[in-house]
Amino acid sequence: MSKTADNLKSAFAGESQANRRYIAFAQKAEDEGFSQVARLFRAAAEAETVHALNHLKTLKEVKSTKANLETAISGEHFEFKEMYPGYLDAAKKDGNPKAAWSFNVANQVEAIHASLFSKALAALKQGVEMAETDYYVCRVCGNTVEGMRPEKCPICGAAKTEFFKTD
Ligand SMILES: [Fe+2]
Ligand SMILES: [Fe+2]
Predict the structure, then answer these.
(1) Which of 23, 88, 151, 163 minimizes the number of CB atoms within 10 Å of its CB?
(2) What spacing in Å lies between the alpha carbon of 85 and ligand 1's midpoint?
(3) Ligand 2 center–CA 137 separation, angstroms
(4) Centroid of ligand 2 to alpha carbon of 159 (angstroms)
(5) Which tens digit of pLDDT belongs to each residue from 84-131?
(6) Which CATH superfamily does the domain covering 3-58 fall into?
């Protein structure tokens, strides 16, 4: 890989992390009553997303939707079959229940993502898009549900009201 391709990958990772970090910092600023600081963190977070996407597109890692679904499925498979199970075991051995919880819920949700993406890919292979449906995400664990909000999150037990609809 060229030095520049390496740098683009590394900058993509850094900008992506800065985006999520600033979202977390904005939430904290809101909690502490600093709504203007929160606004600034959200603005910078959006800008970091622009940078991250510029880097990723320059790397030519955004392909056709069919290819992108294949990439997404293999990433999710890696996460729930290899990465998170290992991380979860290590967190238990380290006596870190919070990390174990975080890895465990992510692990379960990645399996759901893999299945949702696979469904989308199967439809595309038939030359159609999936039937229209809404998606809801659990604010507590990230569980991703199609159709309607469940009464209670089947993964983390959160109430129905913790689910928000995505665009
Ligand atoms: Fe995922
Ligand atoms: Fe949940």
Answers:
(1) 151
(2) 14
(3) 8
(4) 8
(5) 999 999 999 999 999 999 999 999 999 999 999 999 999 999 999 999
(6) Ferritin, core subunit, four-helix bundle (1.20.1260.10)
